[in-house]
């Protein structure tokens, strides 16, 4: 689990019934001998000191609150505790541990039946002190109000109190009246304070406040406040865009005024979330979860209102009218539309598909798996979607980005169902990797193709011995040089080059890599099998040579996620294939430039050092240290060498502790055996280099022809 998921704030209730912040740290659960049981431990992120050590008592009532990011309990009559989690996933894991100790179902929100006094106390925890006193809503108080709103965001309890105060006093409408006054007076300082206030109120994450802010009466003033970001030299013109530029187009006639208003509201709120609000930091990611839910349930309500208003919806597709009286029938539209030339039809079909995926990804997955039993891979819905992503004619790939997001939702195990009779995750992922993955990776494999290069081009990257170089470009069948093993070695190379390095292709490959990186994080077995069967990481690392830095960084991020798993299967694959070389070449070619690529490469090696991944450390030091030892502006590589030498010393001490007769006869291999192993490694043919170390996936009938598929997509695009 990542550190951010385990990150918590510890609160205790003081004598004045106020919640005191005891510090921020990382929580874990483990058996504590002194307490004779499973316990919750929180260590401070600043110095590792122990902030909390609390035994999970089988009879203590634990309660989950605050949209599943807060756990509250009492350890004694006057000693109450709360853990506020940065991420819901971390809260869920600790909650499962608590429920496991108490023998409870993790779906409950309270683990024990509370006696009346306890129930009143826990339920009223946010109100253990009076509501926050709001300053009077006046121009000269705006700075004070902004400071107040900003100060409560770090405390779940104070956020709750402020939200109640704002709701009870009708405060938001008064603030928006001040906004109009400030704008009329061109009071820039006041407008900047209002930006901070309205942004902070959004981060309170309260649906009741959203209902007020996003009403017809208020929403444009809310947008207006958010135009005056103090960090910008000039205010944005979001209201001008929403009222003059954005046009409402009716795919079908809409006569219900309430439905029309709900569509307008949803579009504007989505605009606020996606365009106006800055990307939340890691500390703010949970602050807008209710806003996301607000948008989602608005969309659900729109679909329900459409179903009530229009039992039969006629949709014109290339002069053919298809009658739709059930959501499932929309698949017919999607199967027909994405390949059509009419941009409006394709756009409408993509929007419909988007709503379907958001509304019920399981329904879409069930459909495509049924479809696979009756159709060829070429016309499977997901493959048609991938084809549209690859063939997007927009220079900025706007449509491709949207479709990639939908694909990501469909292959995300987090929203897949598991029942007693079947597991959607295993069934769908087997389908996806057997029928669709080769289509997704076709552009990547085709653009890092083997043995394709302009005649006569030769360029090599040779590092300090022992050499295990990857050759880019064309060359004679064998190249010889004196290597570290003291003999002349003839190497057989797999030649990989990056064929197309234009901006649009680079953008497309970056999108594909982003999706593959997501697969590495969430699909474990299936993607590992695919990577090793296809020698995919080697092909990805060819993109480190791209002139587009963002693409080189995507390739590096893919490798970083693989190494982050600390899986020895992957580690052996990387070392055996000498896959660090393109990364180190990129670092050396970057020279003394201190840029994002430099930082990302250094971070990769620093992770290996900190996590003490011994097999990778040994490989890096033994093969590349001579080329890296001159890098002294960070201590990463010297640190790797130190770790390597320490491990060698440990192994030497272990060996010395073995009786000499065993050491000489059983544990020592002679030089000839080692030399034979090296020869076997050197003489492996190209097929063996890509050999899988896990059972292979079922081979698709289309898989061997991925370049043909890609060329066909390109013809469609032309």
Task: Describe what you observe in this structure.
The structure is a single chain. The chain is α+β, with helices and mostly antiparallel strands and 718 residues long. The protein contains 33 helices and 13 strands. It folds into 4 domains: 96 residues, PH-domain like, CATH 2.30.29.30; 168 residues, no CATH class; 201 residues, no CATH class; 88 residues, no CATH class. The strands form 4 sheets. The chain has a 7-stranded antiparallel beta sheet with strand order 4-3-2-1-7-6-5. It has a two-stranded antiparallel ribbon with strand order 8-9.
How many domain regions? 4
Helical content band:
40-55%
Strand content: 5-15%
**Overall body shape:** globular
Mean pLDDT: 76
Structural class: alpha+beta
Largest sheet: 7 strands, antiparallel
Tell me the Rg in angstroms.
30 Å
State the separation between the terminal residues, measured CA to CA.
45 Å
Which residue ranges are poorly predicted, with pLDDT under 50 across at least 5 consecutive positions? 114-129, 310-317, 319-331, 336-340, 451-498, 665-707
Number of helices: 33
Instruction: Enumerate the strands of the largest sheet in spatial order, edge to edge or round the barrel.
Output: 4-3-2-1-7-6-5
Secondary structure tally: strands: 13
Region (Disordered): 678-718
Domain Serine/threonine-protein phosphatase 4 regulatory subunit 3-like central: 144-309, 328-646
Protein name: P4R3B phosphatase
Biased composition (Acidic residues): 678-691
